[in-house]
Amino acid sequence: MPTAPPTEGRGKARADAGDLNLMDALAQLSFMVQGALAKRAADQDLSLIQTRLLGVLRDRRPTMQEVAQLLELDKSSVTGLINRAERRGLVQRSPSSEDRRSVHVTLSPVGRRVAQKVVRAFQHDIDAATAHLTKAERDRLRQLAASVVAEAG
Prior knowledge:
By secondary structure, this protein is mainly alpha-helical.
């Protein structure tokens, strides 16, 4: 997991940040975001993939196949992931009313509480990382990031 540079080096790191090309700047941003998310996942004794699963289930009731597509995993990996999450009481399975062969996955009440803890802590990290930006700059960053994600989608 990436660690923060020593305090005495932070001013130099910020000064050099303006010299990064787009690829390096986005890679560094990705490392920072993934590091913060990994820390918040570890705080709840979750792996990154388990955290992604909880994130996917926050506002959806997907089938196992849909979970595989959303997480870009093969079916056997998703089965193991869901089995482990179910044993921890984080998710629940229920048969599909549309297709008897399909199973939907939802957050359990425990899983919802864990997901909310991760979201709150991660939001705090993102707020702290972007605190030096104006509201307009944060809004623009959100718009640009959403645009890149939508286009890559």
